[in-house]
């Protein structure tokens, strides 16, 4: 039962965040790139003011899987970096936290591009 | 011949009124469903990792979850399946981190015809570039603000 | 003779024969029985979609020459264009032929431009046989103007599907066929301030209206003079806008009006939103379906108006609106 409730929360919150994105697509002329940035910043700002943690506790993957989670990661990395290393941490903490996502995306992108080709539409 | 002023506004209003309506309910529901499913898959992957490797801390679990999701997205993009999913689910495929991964892999695949260095590598960030630039810049701003608050 | 914007050919120019090759999606559409050739895939074993587009173009010109038992020496010039940067597709296509070449660009109105210029050269007595052709390819246009092919973006209701195909017409000074180009009305650049690169129909409709109205004024005719008035690729929404714009100028485009972008695909079954577009959209429809109807006598007078939106990759990003152009060609069975 608990598992079901957890997954239900994940589904609803995750779906809701995407629904917000779809509203942006439908009602504005925002393109993919801009939507990615909007949600990234949303997560980043929420984490900066401390509001992202409670949402994450509640919704788990529903909050972390959307790119808002990645933005929140970057912010938390910067904040923790400041705590540990002062100014140096402020400058490097963010990218360190995002390192996994960025490096994997680059590597996977590179490898997949080498072995596949565009398809007929 | 260039239309200006009121006449231009009248034409643009007419065009807007006569444009086919986006099927709002339809697209919103699909985005919700697809987004929810992708998040549940992510949750499932995290839970599996925690189950088999209870020693990992949260950061490691989420890091590996991200890795697996990005790999899956890359494969789906490489097989020409992800764009069909995206056309169906709209924001449901863009907003999750899968959208970020897809936006790196897709231009890379396409530009293979221009060679590995100048084709694939040069173009990987045509869509995702802003995410990285703005994400890192914003994180530095946040870091600096926190540092200044700590200092003052 | 030229009156205002319309050239009246003293000796109407013959469209002796046509050749077309269509992509797989077009080959599943309503006009599949009219295309001379249909491809089973759109990469044609080539390393890139650009090379596939070039291969289609070469094929269609060779096909026309073979069927008419002509050699390259018989052709005085090829007038052609496509949607690729620097019309590079045409450049590499014409590298395979020893025929004089004049490359043209008016976006999706290029075929109309080619027909008028080719006819003018023949009518002036300088040339005897010319080929007018265009190509377009969904994958090359998409990657150049819009998004990477594998990107998971959603198509909007106003978007159009770029046609994959190549087509050409052989224009001659003699009377090989009774299908003749009688007149051509030159378009001018018209910009009604549409900035949405996803709504080409609304951007192009004013240009089509401008040329159509000029044509009727110059010829003194009415829409009902023609059995068929057909625009290039305004799509469903764009053609409705055109009908209203033309009506405001005092002419009624009735049941004899349609659009090539609407004709080429099956809207319900093929998920193409507004319909087809691309430099080869009007070309494929004209050189297959419309030409065969003219040959059978089912159509006797056609006003053919290819339309083109004049954008570049950066113009939209730099905040520019979308100007457009349309050329009208009067084709009759004489």
Protein topology:
The complex is a heterotrimer of chains A (121), B (152) and C (334).
Chain A: H1 2-27, H2 32-48, H3 52-59, H4 61-64, H5 67-115
Helix pairs in contact in A: 2-5
Chain B: H1 5-18, H2 24-52, H3 58-78, H4 82-89, H5 91-94, H6 97-110, H7 116-123, H8 129-151
Chain C: E1 2-3, E2 6-22, E3 37-38, H1 49-67, E4 77-81, H2 88-94, E5 101-103, H3 110-123, E6 129-136, H4 138-145, E7 161-162, E8 165-172, E9 179-185, H5 200-219, E10 228-231, H6 235-248, E11 257-259, H7 260-263, H8 267-270, E12 276-277, H9 281-295, E13 301-305, E14 307-309, E15 324-326, E16 328-333
Parallel strand pairs in C: 2-3, 4-5, 4-6, 7-12, 10-11, 10-13
Antiparallel strand pairs in C: 1-2, 2-8, 2-9, 6-8, 9-16, 13-16, 14-15
Helix pairs in contact in C: 1-2, 5-6
Describe the structure.
The complex is a heterotrimer of chains A (121), B (152) and C (334). Chain A is mostly helical. Chain A has one domain (2-115). In chain A, 86% of the residues lie in helices and 0% in strands. Chain A has 5 helices and no strands. Chain A has helices at 2-27, 32-48, 52-59, 61-64, 67-115. In chain A, helix 2 packs across helix 5 (67-115). Chain A is globular. The N and C termini of chain A lie far apart (43 Å). The model of chain A has no long low-confidence stretch (mean pLDDT 91). Chain B is extended and about 70 Å long. In chain B, helix 6 packs antiparallel against helix 7 (116-123). Chain B has one domain (23-151). Chain B has helices at residues 5-18, 24-52, 58-78, 82-89, 91-94, 97-110, 116-123, 129-151. Chain B is built from 8 helices and no strands. Chain C folds into 2 domains: 2-172, Stage V sporulation protein AD (Peroxisomal Thiolase, Chain A, domain 1), CATH 3.40.47; 182-333, Peroxisomal Thiolase, Chain A, domain 1 (3-Layer(aba) Sandwich), CATH 3.40.47.40. Chain C is α/β, with parallel strands linked by helices and 334 residues long. Chain C has helices at residues 49-67, 88-94, 110-123, 138-145, 200-219, 235-248, 260-263, 267-270, 281-295, and strands at 2-3, 6-22, 37-38, 77-81, 101-103, 129-136, 161-162, 165-172, 179-185, 228-231, 257-259, 276-277, 301-305, 307-309, 324-326, 328-333. At the A-B interface, helix 1, helix 2, helix 4 and helix 5 of A face helix 2, helix 3, helix 5, helix 6 and helix 7 of B.
